[in-house]
Amino acid sequence: MKQPTELRTDVLVIGGGIGGCRAALRARQLGCDVILTEKAVVGRAGPMTFVHSQFAPWPLTDEEKLVWMREFVQASNYLADQEWLDVLLAEAPSRIDELAEMGVPYERDADGRLKYTTSRGHKVGKTINVDGRVVMEILRRELRRHGVRLLEKVMMTDLLTSDGQYPTLGEVSGAVGFHVRTGEPFVIRSKAVILNTGPLYPKIHFSYIDGVTGEGHRMAYRAGAELAGMEFTQYASWSYWEDTFSSPGQAKIQGIGAKFINAHGEEFMWRYDPEWGNLSSLYRVARAIITENMEGRGPCYVDFRHCREEDIEMLLRVVPTLDLGLREFGIDLRKQPLKTTPFMAIGMGTSGGLRVDTWSRTNVSGLYAVGTCTCLPVIMSGNSGSGHSTFSNVGGYRAGEDAARRAQRMKHPPVKEPQLEAVLAEMLAPLDRRGNTRPADVWAAIGDVTCESTFALFKNAERIDRTRRLVNEIKTYLLPRMSAPDPHELVKALEARSYVEMVELCCLAYGTREESRGEHFRVDFPYQDDIDWLRWVVIKLASHGEPEISTPEVPLDRYPIKPDKRERKPSPFPVPEEYR
Asked: Any residues with CB less than 8 A from the CB of 21 and at least 6 apart, and which?
């Protein structure tokens, strides 16, 4: 093993999305030394590069804030953390103004004012249009200007703890990783660690991004951090067009008024979601399309022919991937509906990640999490097409501020050499293995298990238990045999490890929530149960090395927005007899 490069800093930020960049900038502004690591390149990786709009409240009166909050809470099926929502609505205007002052080119009207539009999941709340890639280029420039130390193409894999234990009873004291090209190991000692490692997704190369596979989830869970919302990890997409290309921009497509129609030309989403219709959540739209296909009314299409020309031009401007695909394949969405093919996989839908308080702190001392590696407490099973990046913006700023305060009042916590040696050896082990099991084999195996239609679409206790057993077999027998001939393959091996280990916890959460809510659908509990299940499902690693589950009630008694009544609401999705 190469001798590790050892670094020391006040605040270590792992992951260079919008939340990580805002955290690093804020901690640096408050006088801390900051290292930001990114396994790719800051500005060219992560979910923010796919963003086309940001949720954008203006300074709201108390009365307006309650109206905006109610929309979020109702869309979240009353699982949203309303204390976090209060912070989001209060602080988002300032955070957006700061980005504008940095030079972020939000769309504006003829008078130079921010141009507010509509997005999926919002009738009251508004969004502003922007190309997320441009936002990230500007943030990268600001990081360099303020003296944040960037460590790019370095993949961090494990946290270090002051007592050398997993889970820890102490605090985080740094992290380890390696350079993805050279394999050079890195040890970074720090007073605080902020995770911005993105969501949990499989490596699906034709859709979204394939480099966010749950590394932050895994390292934090191992250290003792709580995960929440893992039962809502049912990622769905329907923007695979004409069986030829995929694009982001689903929320903006819905926001400009596109309609979902079946082969008979019928607009069908109102059957499945009478409240939101064509503005329904990704999961509901994807499941509705699948249902239309199964019942003989497919294929289904997205119809833009009635949309205003100025809205179509705006869509193609802020979602250039869609514009490029249409041009390449000679498709004019103004003249023909686009055939849509949905798919589902285990991956972050509206939640599924680290549980954080309103300062982005986890339950592990010194460990923070921001953005889509958290449980997204403001959305939690909900329907917001633009809230993720604004939550990241606000949460990152708060994490950087609190981490800086922490770092300024303490010395570096200790690093235990036995733990350090063990995690370095474990991290690099696939390089020393000989054999034919490669990361691609693990990805194929986990895909076969989790994307099987009866499990993906029609979960019940038996199917969940069976899938969890099969995932455990992959973890037990395939992961220890994975070999990597070079650092590039080592990245893939460790990504597969993270995903498999987190998917097992997802299955545990699926089995725990005995109802259907948001994208969590069970045929043995085909109703939303507001009598018994206005609860969060929380998972953490216990001292005996096994997951520990708790189901705390949502504290509605101290929240301003409450359901009108507690009842069981039947699911709108039919279940074929053979899948019951």
From this structure: 36, 42, 136, 139, 140, 142, 143, 396
